[in-house]
Amino acid sequence: MDVRALVFDVFGTVVDWRSGVARDARALLGGRTGAAVDPVAFADAWRSRYLPSMDRVRRGEQPWTNLDGLHRASLDDLLVEFGVPDVPEPVRAELVLAWHRLDPWPDAVDGLTRLKRDHVIGTLSNGNVALLVDMAKRAGLPWDVILSAELVGHYKPDPEVYDATARLLGLAPEQVMLVAAHVDDLAAARARGLRTAYVYRPDEHGPAVAPPPADPLADISVASFAELATHLRP
Amino acid sequence: MDVRALVFDVFGTVVDWRSGVARDARALLGGRTGAAVDPVAFADAWRSRYLPSMDRVRRGEQPWTNLDGLHRASLDDLLVEFGVPDVPEPVRAELVLAWHRLDPWPDAVDGLTRLKRDHVIGTLSNGNVALLVDMAKRAGLPWDVILSAELVGHYKPDPEVYDATARLLGLAPEQVMLVAAHVDDLAAARARGLRTAYVYRPDEHGPAVAPPPADPLADISVASFAELATHLRP
Questions:
Q1: Which residues of A135-147 are buried (b: 16+ CB within 10 A; e: fewer)?
Q2: Do B169 and A128 lie within an 8 Å CB cutoff?
Q3: CB–CB of B128 and A169 under 8 A?
C-alpha cells in the first residue's frame, strides 16, 4: 500500500457526539424542563434523524442544505416530540452549535499527530466546513485539510464525495484511505477505489449497541488511531 | 471590527514564488541548458502567464482547469519560448511541483501562529487544494482551513470566491478579512463585503518592481503578519 492521505469520518470516529450533545442538551434544556428531557435520549433521538434528513437531500427531495441546517430542522421537530415546543430561538441556535463542540475520543489527538508526520490527514465528513473548523480549533485536531460533503454538494455515501477527495488531493484513489467506525461508509469508499481502515468505537451509541470489532472487508481494522499509526509507519 | 476569520492570498503574500520557482528551474533546467535559461527570468515569465491563463477560464473560453493544469500548459509554451523544447515529461511534472514547494516570507509562520490563537486562519488562493496542502506541510503553515478557487470553480477576483468564503465559514462577510499583497484582490473582496488588510511585500517581483507601501482603501496596511497580529489583538 502507498497511502499518502488519510481522511477521517468525524462523528463517532474522531469525536464522541453522544456525550457532547447530551452535555449541551442538559445545560441548555435542563433548567427549563427539569426532569422532562433525558439528555442522552435527546442526543440519540437527534442523531437518529441524521440519516433520514440527509437522505432527503440525496434523493433530491430537498435542495442542498448543510448539516447545521439539517440539524436545526430536526431539532425543531424534536423539541415538539420531547414536549418542549417553547424553547426560544437563541437556545435553539446554541443547541445546533453543540455539534461544533464535541470532544474527541481519548486517543484521537495523539494518534492524529503521529499520523500527520508521514501522511496528509483530513476530515471527510458530512459536517459542514464551519462545524469542522470550530470543532478542530476547540479540540486541537491537527488537520492538514478540511474536506466536507458541503464542498461537493453531496452527502456520503454518494460516490461524488469520495471521488472529489482523491481529485482535490491530487492523488489516485488507492493513495487515499478512509478511516471510519462505520462499515457502510467504508464500503462506499471502497467502491470508489479508496483504501479503508475500520476503527472500533464501542461507545459511540452507548452500551446497548455493540458495533462489530472489525470489518473483514477493510484493509485494516484497529481499535485506536495510535494502532493505525503503528500499522502505517513507513 | 469583529473579525473572526482571516483568509490569506498565498502567492506573493505568504510565500516567495519568485525565489522558489527560480531555485527549482535552476536545479531542473540548469544542467540541461547551461547558461541558456536565466532561472529568475524564467520564474517571472512563468508568473506573467498566470493572470492571462486564469482569465481564459474566467471568461469561459476554457473549461475549469486547476492551477496545476494551467501551470503545466503555460510551462509547455514557455519551454519553447526559452529555446528548450526538448525537456522530458518527468522534468516538466517536477517543475509544476515547484509551485508546491515555495518558501514562506520570513515573518509568515510566526505571524500566522500568533494570528491563529484568536482567529480562524485559512488560505484563499487560486492555487489548487493539493498545492496548498503540500506547501503548508513542507513550510509548516498552520492553517485551520484550506480554501481555494478550486473548491468554488471560479478564480479570484470572481465574486463567487469571496462569497463562498464567508458562507463556508458560517460568517457574515464583514467578519472575514482578506489579507493580501495585491490591491486588486483586496478591492474585489471589499466589493463583496469582506474586511481587507494589505501586506507590503517589497520583494515579490524583485528590485525592479516596487509595490505601494500601503493601500489607503484597506482597513489596515501592514509590513508583516506580526504587525497584523499586534493590530488585531483582542
A1: bbbebebebbbbb
A2: no
A3: no
Give chain A's length.
234
Whether residue B97 lies within 8 A of chain A, CB to CB, comes out as no
- Which residues, including other chains, have CB under 8 Å from residue B34's CB and lie 6 or more apart? none
Place of cell 435553539: A92
Whether omega before A157 lies within 30 degrees of 0, making that bond cis, reads: yes
In angstroms, the separation between the Cα of residue B98 and the nearest Cα of chain A is: 15
B129/A145 touch (CB, cutoff 8 Å), yes or no: yes
Query: What value of ipTM does the predicted structure carry?
Result: 0.95
Phi-psi region of B34 (alpha: psi -120 to 50; beta: other; left: phi over 0): left
Gap between the Cα atoms of B171 and A108, Å rounded? 28
Query: Which positions in chain A touch B128 (Cβ < 8 Å)?
Result: 168, 170
Identify the H or E element spanning B5. Answer: strand B5-8
The span from the CA of A92 to the CA of A81, in Å, is 15
| Interatomic CA distance for residues B149 and B126, integer angstroms | 5
Q: Give yes or no for a contact between A132 and B147, defined as CB atoms under 8 angstroms apart.
A: no
Q: Is pLDDT at B32 greater than 90 in this prediction?
A: no
The secondary structure of residue B64, as a DSSP letter, is -
How far apart are the C-alpha atoms of B230 and B232, rounded to whole Å? Answer: 6
Cα three-residue angle B215-B216-B218, rounded to 5 degrees = 70
Assess whether pLDDT exceeds 70 at residue A32: no
Is residue A165 a contact partner of residue A185, using CB atoms and an 8 Å limit?
Answer: no
Q: What would the DSSP string read from start to end of B120-153? A: EEEEEESS-HHHHHHHHHHHT---SEEEEHHHHT
Domains of chain A plus CATH, in order, are 5-16+102-232 (3.40.50.1000), 17-100 (1.10.150.240)
| Beta carbons of A194 and A174 less than 8 angstroms apart | yes
pLDDT category at A1 given cuts 50, 70, 90 is confident
Do B168 and A144 count as a contact with CB atoms less than 8 A apart?
no
Distance in Å, alpha carbon of A215 to nearest chain B alpha carbon: 30
pLDDT band, very low/low/confident/very high, at A69 (cuts 50, 70, 90): very high
pLDDT at A142 over 60: yes
B187, B219 contact by CB (below 8 A) = no
In 3D, which of A31, A28, A145, A32 has the Cα closest to residue A98? A28
